[in-house]
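Hey all, quick one. A colleague (J.T.) asked me to put the phosphoenolpyruvate job into the tracker so the inputs and the structure tokens live in one place instead of scattered across chat threads. No bug as far as I know, just bookkeeping. Sequence used:
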Amino acid sequence: MIVVMTPDATQDDLAGVQARLAEAGYGAHLSQGEKRTIIGVIGAGDDEKQTFADQVESLPGVERVIFVLKPYKLVSQESRSDRSVVEVGEARFGGPNLVVCAGPCSVESHEQILECARAVKAAGAQVLRGGAFKPRTSPYDFQGLGETGLDMLAAARDETGLPIVTEARAVKDVELVAEKADVIQIGARNMQNYDLLQAAGESGAPVLLKRGLSATIDEWLKAAEYIAATGNLKIILCERGIRTFETTTRNTLDIAAVPVAQKLTHLPIVVDPSHAGGRRDLVLPLSMAGIAAGADGLIIEVHPQPDRALSDGAQSLTPDAFSELMIQVRTVSEVVGKPLPVMAGKGVEGASWEP
Ligand code: PEP
Ligand code: MN
């Protein structure tokens, strides 16, 4: 922690700050420049309290207090030398290979999720997505099938072997979702639901944490820190577009968030081109952009009949379009040195590419 004095701070002000630091058990290293004095606080590690910093900041003659280390210490890149890898079934988020998750926005029926699971697996996806507890902006829209939807997902996993990622919308859903799914998704609208973050963390299951609609990267990483603080570091970040003044797209994909987050944290990060663009025609270019920016994976909405989807049909790909996309994803992923695993989709009838 560093205390920056104002240019007109007096010797009394300086003595006051030193006395306050000493009272709290900290040493002080003074650096007296021509215009101002800076105090390096000794003994205050990266866990010094924000409240204490705020108190020091309000002492006479203090301009501001700067934290040297990141406020999200467990997920911070500084806290470990390597990048973390989150294992989900055979997929390795943050490993040498790109991971593609795909499936419908909502689980709608046994047949729908099964058809989807078979198709996305055949095209090379390694994880099946599908919402059972849907966080809809309007209370009158389809809210998901709840536990019945989770059972349908589990049946699709049993048949295809694909692990599943699905959202827990409330603390009360967490236990059930952790029991039936492989990854708990925290939706954008819930990124700052701290009770939910803690409950998801405490479940011990891997957590896919979407970035909030208006969240800064700093707030997103602090949300991840809530999960990490429970002792669960199996966290996958997901950039899904943020709200801007632009109206032609549903959200604006913050592509810079991928390399920025990778500098700040050791956690893997995936890109969701479906919610970012909100339009089927943008899913391919945004996927390409995500991979080129260094994403560890993608999460894409696919529906057997998008024109009949109960949610997010406009941004859902047909199974055929998804197969086509995966061919291009494979090429680009190889170019950037993070290829799809050669085994993905291998041996599955109907696979539209050669491993
Ligand atoms: C979803 O994945 O279907 C979803 C609702 O995503 P988000 O929370 O990013 O809007
Ligand atoms: Mn959706």
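Adding what we noticed when we looked at it: The CA atoms of residues 76 and 265 lie 4 Å apart. Confidence is low (pLDDT under 50) at residues 344-355.
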